[in-house]
Please model this.
Amino acid sequence: MSQDCPKDLVRSLVEGTLDVAGSHDGSAADQRASVLAHLEACASCRKLQSKLERNERLVRAALETAGDTDADSECPSPADLAAWTEHALEEDARAKIEEHVARCALCRGSSAIASSPAVLSAFEKGDVPETALDAVRRRVALARAESADAQMSKLTASGRRRSQRTTGRYAAVPASPIAGLGMGFWIAAAAALLVAVGLIAFRETTTVEAPVAEKPSAPTPVVPPAPPSTRESPAPRDPREAPPIAPRETPSPDTRTPAETPAESPVVDQNPPEAEPEEDDGRHAPRGVGAPKTGGPDIARRPDPKGPDPKGPDEKQPKDVVGRQDGGPKRTDEPVLACAVEGLSGPIEVKKKDGKWHALAAGDLLHAGDSLRAKGNDASLTVASRAKVQLDGDTVGTVAFTRTGVKLTIESGGLGFDHLVLAAGAGKPTVTGRDQGTAPFLVARTVGAGAKKVATRSANTALASPDVEPTSVHWLRRCAPAGLGQRADGAGRDIPLSDGIHEGLRPK
Amino acid sequence: MSPVASREEEGELVRACIEGKDAAWERLVRDYSGGALAGVKAALRQRGHGSDPALEEELLADSFEILAAEGGATLRSFRGESGLATFISVVATRRAFRVLRDRLRHGKAVDRKGEQEKRAPRTGEPDPAQNVQAAERASLMVETIAELSGSDKLLLTLFYLDGRSYKDIAAVTGLAVTGVGTKIARARARLKERLARRGVSTDGSDPDI
Model:
């Protein structure tokens, strides 16, 4: 390598900073051309370039390690990151966030996009399809309704146990449940001793509050005045149900009316005074509150014990199970919101009774009797923010969402399944299924991440889950037949899980 | 309401949403969905994801759900230090990146397993001493980069890792576009200096790794 070799330029070329290579005359493009020409002629410079490129790869790999950490929990709040993006923070706060952003690709990306002129100008144009806006409105309404639910649950859980007040005789509070009562109850009881007449009215009012917590979870879009979708049919209101709510109380049952400014009224007016005993799905009232549990999970739509059509499926193509539900669960028009649809390798498709298969999107309303399929893809569907169904491969089935649970009709035959493992959740699910010959399926319930119980049921039999509060519904991987044990009797029994079962499911 | 709305107007809108006014939420959704959707699309593009209207709409709905969830906790965190458009963009793009990252992890887990099963026994293993040397060098580089100042690290990651243009880097860092190149070169020089102090040369004078 001679003294004239432009080593600095070669280094700058490799590092990508040729345009700031100091004192060299000429534009960056000229310098680049000059260096490249030299490299063609000079073997020693090419060797240097090669070494520098190797080092450069190491530096970039080190930057990748340092700059793409998975420190999600350390990410600043959206408000902080937005303020940093607009350079609106004080020096200390700015430096701290800058330190994090340098390490976090997620925050770097968010900041860069948020500050880009293209995105900022899109806020002015507002070019969003109306269907997408409707989906957003439904999700917002759902989130607001759930927030209101949670708030009411807190009020209910603050010590007002329904069983303590069924007689209205507050003087007869038994001693044993006292430990479970919260401060709210004692405040109410203390007030009752002081103002008897007024408290009687108060407590009678609050005795109907428990059913409030058990109101149906079917979300109702309130914000949009327009119908949610042309695909869905109007939902006739069940007089036993609470009227649809925004996060505030709205007396009108008509979901299509424009949202009116809600009154700040207490939750007590939202429910009918004689709500039917409903399943405690754990999301509203705490355990022990509410009417005694009934045997079936779905009072309004008890499935036909015969199950779906026993005819064999078409092995070549998944069929619409809805069409086979002769004698099966009756279709209801009460829709349920598909909250999160994640097609990991492909879309989830839905088909209405008389329609064609089309891709399911979040925000779509599902009706009982709709068919779902993943068509060779992995996907998951979260419904009404409660039940999550994962579709594995060629799974096909019909999902019915009720006020108190989830009912699944699974077509396992003809798709290469030996066994189907299913964890049922979101209340008291009823599972009916069919198998091919001697292939049973397993049912387990999950509470959080662990399986509560594993039981087997033969096909074509409705399964009434025991009194557990599961939180999710899973389609699990096909499991090997070995080690699954025999078919269970009507009551079900625990059997060991095979190795093929999904990792997240283990019996206690 | 467009981004040119005053901070006071934005603050009033946020307050009205937090108070639970349906009309305010409707306005928020209608006026800010466009930019949020653009942010989601940009995030997907940045990660090499093709156009997917269903996913984009889902992520858009996710973003507003995040704002409304838990009594509007996320929306309540808005302090008015930034514009509401920037705030909502951050929420939307973060959601998009996280969903894509989670999907990628799922895919990676599967691929890694498959790759391990398929991998043939290696022949001609390199010298273990060289492997150790290379690993140590790489480790030193990572440590040295971690010691850089936040601004140097940010410049280097934006330029070398994210492949951002000078203009984008200027927008993120607040630097003048004309000064970005110089700043990057100086950050690079400081990195080189630190590496040299640790005995790691980046000028090609080291023996081959």
In short: The longest helix of chain B spans residues 84-118. Residues 109-117 of chain B have pLDDT under 50 and may be disordered. Chain B touches chain A through 96 residues (CB under 8 Å).
